[in-house]
Amino acid sequence: MRRRYLLSGLGTILAFVSVPTGALAQSGVGTLASNKAYSVEVIAHSNCPTQEFDNSNRRSIAVLANYNDAVNPNEDLNLSKVNAIFLTPGAGFQVLDGNACDSNGALLQLPPDIASQFQIYVRLVGKPGSKIDVSTCATLVGTTTILCSTNELAKTRMTGHGQPSFTNATPQLTTIVNAGLVGTLCGTGTVSLFNACLVNYFWDWDTTGHPHAQVWFVQQ
Question: Are strands 118-125 and 212-219 parallel, antiparallel or unpaired?
């Protein structure tokens, strides 16, 4: 798929990436639950909540249903941060702003060593056929350029009577892979979350239908 990004407050420009989708590893619930350090629900709504959900201890983040940057160009032209979940390092896990439906996006605090100390697993519950397509993005220090990873998380809630399965989404949600990083302060085409060569880290959370994602952070 091909994406376009233009978000407000960051002085951004357009960035285009083509994304290959591959199979991802699965893992059993019991093993994950015994080592789970934190979890958060990312729930898509047709009618977004009007509350700010700031400085809360909630365990959920609201996103807009049926939202995709590639097919909603007016959102980009209006400098919207809809379905952007911004990430900030801090002392432990906390949802600081649980509303990604508004023009400011959501804010999720993660441990600064998230990329090396935790695995991130994602499963979709709820209505079969719903989908998410998530990219990790950030801004180059000293520029207005946003780069998003070409290694995206694409997951669909499958039909049938089986239990929803977890996907190990650690590479997709803790790393930015982009050739545009080469020749910058990053010095490489692969950068982990909260590397100082980038700022304004966020997950760009596209939805098809009304996906309800359970995101588990599991201690390694």
Answer: antiparallel
